[in-house]
Amino acid sequence: MTVIRAIKGTRDILPDEVAVWQRIEGAARTLFGRYGYREIRTPIFEETELFARGIGTETDIVGKEMYTFDDHGASLTLRPEATAGIVRSVIENNLMNTDPALKVYALGPMFRRERPQKGRYRQFHQVDVEALGLTRPAIDAEVVEMALGYLEACGLQSYELVLNSVGDAKCRPAYVETLRAALRPQVSRLCPDCQRRTETNPLRVLDCKVPEDQPVIEALPRIADHLCVECRDHFAEVLRELELLGIPYRLNHRLVRGLDYYTRTTFEVTSGALGAQNSVLGGGRYDGLVGALGGPDISGIGFALGMERLVLILPVPEGETRCDVFLIPLEDAAFDETLRLQRTLRGAGLRVLMDPEGRSFKARLKMADKLGARYVAIRGEDERRKGVWSVRDMKGSAQEDVTESRVAEHLTERIHG
Ligand code: ATP
Ligand code: MG
């Protein structure tokens, strides 16, 4: 029989790896709660139209990366990112009515048909944070601060924060035209993608990594010189607050998001440890999105973090132990006793295992060792006659007899105490 394998670009998170995933999920819940965020869970598939409108048809995501399928005449798509679905839900459920400053986060899988490589998968996972209805620069600074606090809570020590402002509906269109005008005379010197982008989405040219394009791109007009007063003031205040909080950053005038609805503050956290796919998280303001999806004209800001990439760069945690107490009944007569003790100890919160296959004593000790058991409790003929369990401390190798009526308490105290 041929063996069926996982689909290209997807991967299993195996039991040996899962501890770090649970840790970063737990860190998100704990930290985001301190800032007033609550979890939201939206469906994994939505109407294709939601992403076309919410992300923009000129983006790589909508243009070529979406998993779209026909469902009896309806066009559906596996979500490539979380924001559009969350905003749809906020509008549909009128969440803004009860909570004019809405802070939500989501964790879960996203789907994009990309070329799989290190740190780039077709099913990957994001931590996603959204704050809706807050317009002042203070929330921009808070979201950035929380994103970095999250990385640190996960144990990431080295990273870089990069910031830019991409203007708003008032000043960006003029800048985009300026950019297009500057690009047109040189368009034949650019890569095919950028030739296309010059007409469809010139901002994306700034994002191009093709080496031959760089001299042209470096000489292009910069958005910082074309922001309206309001956008300039907003950005200056965000930077001032970050400085006030002691958060180092680097400005990069070429940081533009691939998504159309981003306005003003745009940010990214990168890590050199990731190599080519160096972006750990990306975010920014999207003041036009809620309106574009048919909701009220309210602002939004958030970020999305790639969990696979974070896991790749976190320090490797120590091997987790899986067992507190390993029970070894040495004779059939001890079996019932062992089942009862196992149940009592598990009820007290201990991780308790035994060998259900009844292997040799030596094999069972080896098993206990492999599982990282702190204690082994043995019950043989001798112990039964004396009314005790023989308890071995696997660290110190000391062994003592403990009266059967006290053994549960004895072990619980040692593990929890
Ligand atoms: P990139 O430039 O690496 O393609 P992006 O701009 O497409 O990133 P976003 O849409 O902003 O990424 O998504 C936010 C984060 O999600 C990224 O910073 C990255 O950590 C992660 N991410 C995006 N695409 C993938 C993928 N295919 N596989 C794994 N992680 C991803
Ligand atoms: Mg991408």
Could you please describe the fold and organization of this structure?
By secondary structure, this protein is of the alpha+beta class. Helix content is 37%, strand content 21%. It is built from 16 helices and 16 strands. The chain has helices at 18-34, 48-55, 60-65, 83-92, 95-98, 137-153, 172-183, 192-200, 214-218, 229-244, 289-292, 307-313, 335-347, 361-370, 381-386, 407-416; strands at residues 38-39, 45-47, 68-71, 74-78, 102-111, 123-132, 160-165, 250-251, 263-270, 279-285, 300-306, 325-329, 352-354, 375-379, 388-393, 399-403. An 8-stranded mixed beta sheet has the order 1-5-6-11-10-9-7-8. Strands 13-12-14-15-16 form a 5-stranded mixed beta sheet, with helices on both faces. It has a 3-stranded antiparallel beta sheet with strand order 2-4-3. β15 (388-393) and β16 form a beta hairpin. α1 (18-34) runs antiparallel to α6 (137-153). The longest helix has 17 residues, at 18-34. The structure holds adenosine-5'-triphosphate and magnesium ion. Adenosine-5'-triphosphate binds next to β6, β10, β11 and α12.
